[in-house]
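Input/output pair, single chain:
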Amino acid sequence: MVGLAAAMFVGLFAFGAQFFGWSEAAHEQLHLGLFLSFVLGIICGYKTRG
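Output:
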């Protein structure tokens, strides 16, 4: 499951603008949002795991 989440993150981070047509102006903010959500998901996963 972690591998799938990591692959989806890398795919969205690298090719999200091409897949979903995000504008270049919002590209930096989207990268920051994706990165923060991934990091916070990892932190929450470790806290609930044990």
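The mean pLDDT is 77. DSSP finds two helices and no strands in the chain.
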